[in-house]
TrEMBL record:
<dbReference type="InterPro" id="IPR036152">
    <property type="entry name" value="Asp/glu_Ase-like_sf"/>
</dbReference>
<keyword id="KW-0378">Hydrolase</keyword>
<dbReference type="InterPro" id="IPR027474">
    <property type="entry name" value="L-asparaginase_N"/>
</dbReference>
<dbReference type="Pfam" id="PF17763">
    <property type="entry name" value="Asparaginase_C"/>
</dbReference>
<dbReference type="InterPro" id="IPR037152">
    <property type="entry name" value="L-asparaginase_N_sf"/>
</dbReference>
<feature type="active site" description="O-isoaspartyl threonine intermediate">
    <location>
        <position position="19"/>
    </location>
</feature>
<dbReference type="InterPro" id="IPR040919">
    <property type="entry name" value="Asparaginase_C"/>
</dbReference>
<feature type="active site">
    <location>
        <position position="19"/>
    </location>
</feature>
<dbReference type="GO" id="GO:0006528">
    <property type="term" value="P:asparagine metabolic process"/>
</dbReference>
<dbReference type="InterPro" id="IPR020827">
    <property type="entry name" value="Asparaginase/glutaminase_AS1"/>
</dbReference>
<dbReference type="InterPro" id="IPR027475">
    <property type="entry name" value="Asparaginase/glutaminase_AS2"/>
</dbReference>
<dbReference type="InterPro" id="IPR004550">
    <property type="entry name" value="AsnASE_II"/>
</dbReference>
<dbReference type="Pfam" id="PF00710">
    <property type="entry name" value="Asparaginase"/>
</dbReference>
<protein>
    <recommendedName>
        <fullName>asparaginase</fullName>
        <ecNumber>3.5.1.1</ecNumber>
    </recommendedName>
</protein>
<dbReference type="InterPro" id="IPR006034">
    <property type="entry name" value="Asparaginase/glutaminase-like"/>
</dbReference>
<dbReference type="GO" id="GO:0004067">
    <property type="term" value="F:asparaginase activity"/>
</dbReference>
<feature type="active site">
    <location>
        <position position="95"/>
    </location>
</feature>
Amino acid sequence: MTSAPSSKANIIVVTTGGTIAMAEDQQTKSVRPLSSEALQAVLPYVSDHAKVQMDHYLNIPSPHITPDIMFQISQRAKEWLERPETDGLVITHGTDTLEETAYYLDLVLHFDKPIVVTGAMRSQGELGADGPVNLVNAIRTAAHPRAKGKGVLVVFNDEIHAARWVTKTHTSNVATFRSPSHGPVGYVTKKDILFHQSISKKVQLPHKQPRARVDLIKAAAGTDDCFLRCALDSGAEGIVLEGLGQGNIPPAMLPGVKEALRRNIPIVLVSRCYNGIVQDVYGYEGGGKELKELGVVFSNGLNGQKARIQLIAALNVSKDPEALQEFFEDGII
Ligand SMILES: NC(=O)C[C@H](N)C(=O)O
């Protein structure tokens, strides 16, 4: 049995740019922004499900997105969501940093109304362009009562993902968005919007202008503390360390970690593995046990780029390692 919403929902589409609002220049063969008004061509395909209003807000490639711009997008989203007549919101975004903006919105927007982020891997006019179908599916999801109270969702390639877990996994494939460890929370079919996983716990942070500079540093075999020191010297107020395996680092990185903690600069540890969580298991030099004892904050399955967004938002609340640990321990599905 299908379950179309009984009356048409009022859905706002806030455009921010990305490939979904780009087309290939036939002469140079480069993909460049075009008027995001072209997205309106899909509206007849959703007229049975929703009354759609387009808000052509920004038109920028997502590598140009900053935490400041994420905050501006969140304010725009909040303005729409606070209107009683708005039933749901879709945000179109470039895919390169889509997961970061989606997770930022998930952390700071506290609404029951559906909020869905989507984009495209192939620009308009390209063979197999996925923007139109992704936008239609995102609008249908935002219009569906089952999408309420689920936090921010990412709809892409007929799948629905939780903003917390989704990540871009392929440079060019239209099936790029995946949720390692967790899988999609639902599907969009021709006739229905289906959820098969609940999203039970969610970290919530205050909706405030992000101010802290947080650097993301990756560990690899034989890396030293050069980038950690550089981050400290450049004014980082927090560091996310993408460690090895269950959360271990090469011994040569330790002096930089100790120096950061001595200066009260919090360090959040994630793993460069894209499945699993970090734990204080190993007792050797640079192992998780030593990092825990030093006061490093352990994150719970977030990837590096999302832990960075969460630390930026969390530093608006506290620099205290215990408070930060609570923000990072919470939120597992
Ligand atoms: N598919 C895309 O949207 C990629 C593009 N570079 C962007 O993120 O803006």
